Amino acid sequence: MPERDPLLTRLQGCPVLIVGDVMLDHFVIGRVDRISPEAPVPVVRFEHENFRVGGAANVASNVAALGGQAYLAGVIGDDVEGSRLRDSLSRLKISGDGLVQDPARCTTRKLRVVTTRNQQVARVDYESDAEVSGEVERQLVDHVDALAAKAGAVVISDYLKGVVSRAVAAAALAAATRRGVPLLVDPKVPHVDYYRGASLITPNHHEAEAVTHMRIRSEAEAREAARRFRDRAGCESVMITRGEHGMWLLTPEGETALPAEAREVADVTGAGDTVIGTLALALAAGATLLDAARIANRAAGIVVGKFGPATASVGELTQ
Fold first, then answer.
1. Distance between CA atoms of residues 97 and 128, nearest Å
2. Across the strands, what pairs with 111?
3. Which terminus of the chain has fewer CB atoms gathered within 10 Å of its CB, N or C?
């Protein structure tokens, strides 16, 4: 039996607040035997379906899977999908008290039609992506203020589905600052100005290229892009996730290349959620940013070997 890293033991019970776009991932799974005579598309014979939490809710799920205490602030609709999402969170022992119900929008749902060999045939998105405002935004800010008082780290999980308004992002930053805990952001390019003052931002290489207006094809280019991104976003540290090329971490103390740890890639869906959830939990447990990044890199290598939004366990990280 491998000896457990002491840091993994310290993760247990550490509180993390996740603020952002919660989603429901809906998988319709069936067998494909023929092409439709009506159009050149496969005919999927339904076999079963399943639901998983996605987006910011998947970040919370990753925190909970590693033994952390996840608090979640987001928005759902007054619909069946919202109820299903609440039920799913409850089964994962994640409180839905920070979710605001907005009858004017639907709960974000990504419906994927998938074959029994895990090949995606089509995806249908149900969403309302207008930024929150008025009473819904005020309730969300109140939840962020209240829940951050319990948190050892705060995460903004931005999927551009409307929850991360300028006011909500500012509330998360102010609450983290008052609490004296790190604020981590999984960003979207149009909102880069919302995150100024964050402790760490984790763009993927496409997002880093868009913000810095440069190509990233080497470690040297990743180094320069991270520096430019930090200057543009006004944050302390940057970690660029580069898929099979690993990660590039820039902190005030220095720079580090982290090679990818995946042995086999089945599905990259939700890998960014795993990275930022693991980072936040490790920082809440008192890890250095470099140690937190190493554990997050290891967790990402595990989840990309699984289908759909997935989590890594402490046992898997230990092995």
1. 21
2. 26, 124
3. N
The pLDDT assigned to 4 comes to: 64
What region, left, alpha or beta, does residue 158 occupy, with left being phi > 0 and alpha being psi -120 to 50 degrees? beta
Tokens at 158, concatenated: 């931005």
Query: Do the beta carbons of residue 35 and residue 170 sit within 8 Å?
Result: no
Please give the model's pTM, rounded to 2 decimal places: 0.94
First-to-last alpha carbon distance for the chain, in angstroms, is: 8
Q: In a 3-state reduction of DSSP, which class is residue 243?
A: helix
3-class secondary structure, 105: coil
Residue 267: pLDDT over 70: no
Domain borders along the chain are 6-23+55-107+128-318
**Catalytic residue IDs:** 273
Pull the structure tokens for residue 24.
């429901």
CATH 3.30.1780.10 fits 6-23+55-107+128-318, yes or no: no
Instruction: Look at residue 262 in the predicted model and tell me its pLDDT.
Output: 61
Q: Which of 212, 211, 216 is nearest to 241 (CA)?
A: 216
In whole angstroms, what is the distance from residue 242 CA to residue 260 CA?
Answer: 8
Would you state the structure tokens that stand for residue 11, as one six-digit string?
Answer: 């993760």
d(CA 79, CA 103): 8
CB 273 within 8 A of CB 62: yes
Strand, helix or coil at 281? helix
Residue 82 corresponds to which tokens in the numbers above?
């919202």
Q: For the chain, what is the mean pLDDT?
A: 94
Among candidate residues 206, 205, 207, the one with its CA nearest the CA of residue 223: 205
68 in Cβ contact with 13 (< 8 Å):
yes
